[in-house]
Design brief:
The structure is a homodimer. In chain A, strands 1, 2, 3, 4, 5, 6, 7, 8 and 9 form a nine-stranded mixed β-sheet that branches. In chain A, strand 13 and strand 14 form a beta hairpin. Chain A contains 14 helices and 16 strands. The interface between A and B is medium-sized, with 20 and 20 residues.
Chain lengths: 389, 389
């Protein structure tokens, strides 16, 4: 007898954990978890809880609706959608598909982009798939597991709070991204988007289990806080997180340009990490963490497509790139990315060179092992910690 | 007995006159007349001549297709559409309208934008309306007689040579323009667009007779050349053209930015106009002609919405803003705009202040009369023509 997986109910009381875990997997991007949670909580309060179902429940000819917010997270925190925008793109997707969809899917996992699909699922009464298209957040639409898997995209529908609606039929995912990015700048810096995917494409290419993983990460961090445990000791139990640096944010340079939040932040090591500084480079998401001294950062600790998350050292609260501020006490952790991103096609789409960094991709756990075997970094750190240097 | 107007046939042999006259009315913009003519000639050679019909032939529930090229003219001269793009937007408009359209209409009169509708009309076998939406060319989509007349716009379809297709549903004409402009920058700097309008809206708001007027201007300029007459003596007979300055182009500053060709050109007066320089400010189209000395141009000769056209002094060949070059011998003429542009709503949309010039609109013929009554400008010109000054 085949037991069909039943999924689980996502209640309002789960949203804090989901938002927290999604913000960790969002690797600095994917939007503010507080806003994501507000919109999802409003939808669940009005329409009831959401059923989360595994990918295996999809049939080949099912229609899956992908919804997301797209733009600069710095804008999203000030331009909060009313929820009506989700309905607008949903209706357009249904109209295009010519039938009622079977499930809702997140394009990425992030504080907004894992939670808005929850809101849509609640509003339209569909299940939410326990999956996403990245296993993390990435700043551009062509960097999805769907695109790695060669899925052909239909029109992407785009709307804003004013009521403008776009239908973008791009010749490929990169053109959809390019046109969407320029248009969203015209539309105020952020938009809500929707797209239909076929069940067989989603089952074949989506990253399975992302919602469950985000919930587990959020729950683990919350319990550590409730039980006054060090979250850094328990987080690796759910997601292979590697601590990269604990310190204080000493500088943030951030510009909202071309529809992205771009910049870098410096974290000066404290405690065991005293004496060196880690520079984080970001484009919505953290893309590179490099360690060094005196404004030179020769030692790469982690790079895209691996995840780089910044959490408050005391509370384990994830901090998105648009919320980084001088003086925050933070711990940077690296989390290995999904295996597809380590394939040649995955690295072509999402490796450090795609984003303009002259850095070869090396898995972050390999970098950590290399560092552990070569103790000179510790020596150097001790040297520079000497008074007067 | 009511005689229904029959219109006239536009043959391949008319295209040179139409392109020339359209480039004059294009007031520096509206695209290169050579490219417009090539595309229209190709379509007429393949599909036969086009019937041009007056606005009065339209019924209330007719569907009119508006086609145009949108973008920076500097790009259009290097990115020539294949004609296939016209078919793509035409098919989308038909699909949206749900029925076969009754006529094709130019959104503006210009070297490309009066000629591409001819090509579309030939390709699909529809009549071309003897009308347009501006009576000249303007750089932005919301500056149309349709918008002055309060017409509500359906979706604008946009495509490029690569095959990307956009459908823009803007909440008003300004948002359609804004989103289209950002998107076309993503799409390479120029695009082909299409839109459906209702017969009653077009009959009520379009500028009548634009195609006939362009033909008459082109014919007049050609005959003057053939008969070795001074075109400056005969052009005022067809379009109230006022000579503003005859001279030499001494400087052109032109940038392609934000989907427009922007800049200014200086024409140093020669002959009767020696001693002063006219500066032309443009954004695709010429917007302002000011006269002065020594890099100060205090005296406004003409401003948008009046037409400012630059023609080769010897041949009467119109020169578009993207084709202005150092050393060209040119004559600048002003042509009064259509009356709707002199209404408060017209000036709000297309007056000099809309384009950022701190200049009140005064009709160019009033400015000319004022100059004729105040001879000090002539004195000043004579002074500065003295040796050593």
């Amino acid at each position: 007898m085949v037991v069909k997986p039943q999924g689980f109910r996502l209640e309002a009381s789960d949203l804090l954990d989901l938002a927290t875990g999604s913000a960790v997997l969002g690797t600095g991007g994917g939007g503010d978890p507080y806003i994501g949670r507000l919109v999802a909580a409003g939808a669940i309060a009005a329409h009831g809880p959401v059923t989360v179902v595994p990918l295996s429940t999809l049939s080949d000819d099912d229609v899956v609706v992908l919804v997301s917010m797209s733009g600069a997270p710095t804008v999203m925190v000030e331009k909060i959608p009313s929820g009506r925008e989700l309905d607008v793109v949903y209706r357009r997707v249904v109209e295009y598909a010519g039938r009622e969809p079977n499930a809702v899917l997140a394009v990425e996992i992030g504080g907004i982009n894992a939670l808005f699909p929850v809101a849509t699922a609640a509003r339209v009464g569909l299940p939410l798939l326990d999956a996403d298209g990245m296993g993390r957040a990435f700043p551009e639409f062509q960097i999805t597991s769907f695109n790695v898997g060669g899925v052909t995209f239909g029109p992407r529908f785009v709307t804003d709070e004013k009521g403008n609606v776009l239908r973008i039929e791009g010749i490929d995912a990169r053109w959809i991204e390019r046109i969407n990015r320029h248009a969203l700048v015209a539309m105020g810096g952020s938009v809500i988007t929707g797209l239909a995917l076929r069940g067989q494409d989603v089952r074949r290419t989506a990253i399975a289990g992302s919602i469950s993983l985000a919930l587990a990460i959020g729950r683990t961090l919350r319990r550590a806080r409730e039980e006054k445990q060090d979250w850094r000791a328990v987080l690796p139990g759910v997601c292979d997180a590697l601590p990269l640096c604990t310190g204080k944010v000493t500088a943030v340079l951030r510009r909202t340009t071309g529809g992205f939040a771009r910049g870098h932040a410096d974290v000066a090591g404290m405690g065991d990490d005293a004496g060196s500084t880690v520079r984080l480079e970001f484009q919505n998401e953290h893309l590179l963490a490099r360690r060094g001294h005196d404004a030179a950062y020769p030692e790469v600790l982690a790079s895209t497509p691996d995840l780089i998350a910044v959490l408050e050292t005391d509370t384990g609260t994830p901090i998105t790139t648009e919320a980084l501020r001088f003086g925050q006490r933070v711990t940077i952790v690296g989390i290995p990315c999904q295996p597809i991103w380590r394939t040649p096609r995955g690295l072509e789409l999402a490796g450090p060179r795609y984003f303009g960094f002259d850095v070869d991709y090396v898995p972050l756990e390999v970098r950590a092992e290399t560092r552990a075997r070569a103790p000179e970094h510790h020596d150097r750190r001790e040297e520079s910690a000497c008074p007067g240097i």
